[in-house]
Amino acid sequence: VQLQASGGGLVQAGGSLRLSCAASGRTFIFSRNTLAWSRQPPGKEREFVAAITWSGGSTYYADSVKGRFTISRDNAKNTLYLQMNSLKPEDTAVYYCAVQYSGFYYDPKTYDYWGQGTQVTVSS
Fold it and tell me: Is the pLDDT of residue 103 over 90?
């Protein structure tokens, strides 16, 4: 399965962005597994942001984004979303979407397929 993330950009603090991640190829892998967003701030390691189970019934968030970000998915469109509100300068990072077969949802090292990343820059 191939993942294509989009929607990043430059935004002022307090603003909003909506990231999308479109799947192609073996899309059944996308629709039947947990999906996640992670990010890599400048000079730091990749970190968990949010995850959603295959049905969308359960969602999980890093404490740093809880209440500001919302993860969702549309399996019919093979697309994953991340609505980001009240953005802060510390949200600046490259954001990646991923598919996870199994493992701890909060550990990006257990993700199986990755998109190419989209840059989000939040100015103060």
Answer: no
Tell me phi and psi for residue 82, to 5 degrees: -140, 110
Q: Give the 3-state secondary structure of residue 14.
A: coil
Mean pLDDT value of segment 16-20: 98
pLDDT of residue 2: 95
Burial code (b: 16+ CB inside 10 Å, e: under 16) for 44-68 equals eebebbbbbeeeeeeebbbeebeee
- Mean pLDDT, the chain, rounded, equals 96
Cα–Cα nearest to 37, from 20, 54, 25: 20
Cross-strand pairs, 38 = 48, 96
What is d(CA 47, CA 106) in angstroms, rounded to the nearest whole number? 8
CB-count exposure of residue 24 (10 Å: 0-12, 13-18, 19+)? exposed
Q: Are 72 and 81 in contact (CB under 8 A)?
A: yes
Q: Compute the average pLDDT of residues 31-39.
A: 96
